[in-house]
Amino acid sequence: MFPTRIEIIPSEGIVERVAAAVAPSTPITVTCLPHHGVGRTVRTATQLAGLGYTAIPHLAARSVQSRAELTGILRNCSDAGIGEVFVIGGDRKHPAGPYDSALPLLEDIEQYSSGLIRAGIAGYPEGHPFLDPGAGVDALLAKQHLASHVVTQMCFSAPRILDYVALLRRVGVQLPVWAGVAGAVPRTRLVSLAAQIGVGSSLKFLSRKGPLARKLLVGDHYAPESLIAELKSQSARLAGIHLYSFNSLDPTPSGTDHGSDIKGASRAN
């Protein structure tokens, strides 16, 4: 089976919704949005960890206000049994504290946790509006000694994801790669997000009436099953699927690990 982890947004009531819909055997990652802040992300992750989930909080570097706040976050994670975080630069225009990108935050996490907390980092098969072309790969090379894996931005093309993995291997990035895939969400919502997060190229099919659009749309909803099937056929090249749920906690698509266990955004370096 193909391993899958689910990303959620720490909105009001999401812990209860996860507990009602997702078995604890499915890892849950908790995003960090500028208007929510790091605190809400970490609180949600620790609550999920207390319910038996493998919870992975996202830490946005430009949202961390101080090194003292970081040490408190790491202490809270350790106390809750959380051994992994996901580090991004974040979408704040100006840093709230000493970290203007993911790299210095990764360095301090390594130092302050004595290497006991692993950190994932972001990859961009289609680039990112906040990054110069090529900067994303260079950033991964600079950070990989501090990271445990890469999670790609939400993407809608298996060849693009696999070509990106091949590129990383050619330049010397050897970290395991989780393929970022959108869950079953309304087409209009995905289209509205595309320009913000830089995935317009692989999303163009949603505006068309051709066979690919018919294959990947169920009514007005995007359906990820066929994309996941393509990725699964190349599972030796991928660590698994990172499912962007947008808090739509429908059953995990068939063909992915933990699917039978179910009971019921934008980032830069």
TrEMBL record:
It catalyses: (6S)-5-methyl-5,6,7,8-tetrahydrofolate + NAD(+) = (6R)-5,10-methylene-5,6,7,8-tetrahydrofolate + NADH + H(+). SUPFAM superfamilies: FAD-linked oxidoreductase. The keyword Oxidoreductase applies. The keyword RNA-binding does not apply. Pathway: One-carbon metabolism; tetrahydrofolate interconversion. It comes from the Bacteria. Pfam families: MTHFR (PF02219). Keywords: FAD, Flavoprotein, Oxidoreductase. Its cofactor is FAD. PANTHER family: METHYLENETETRAHYDROFOLATE REDUCTASE, METHYLENETETRAHYDROFOLATE REDUCTASE (NADPH). Belongs to the methylenetetrahydrofolate reductase family. This is Methylenetetrahydrofolate reductase.
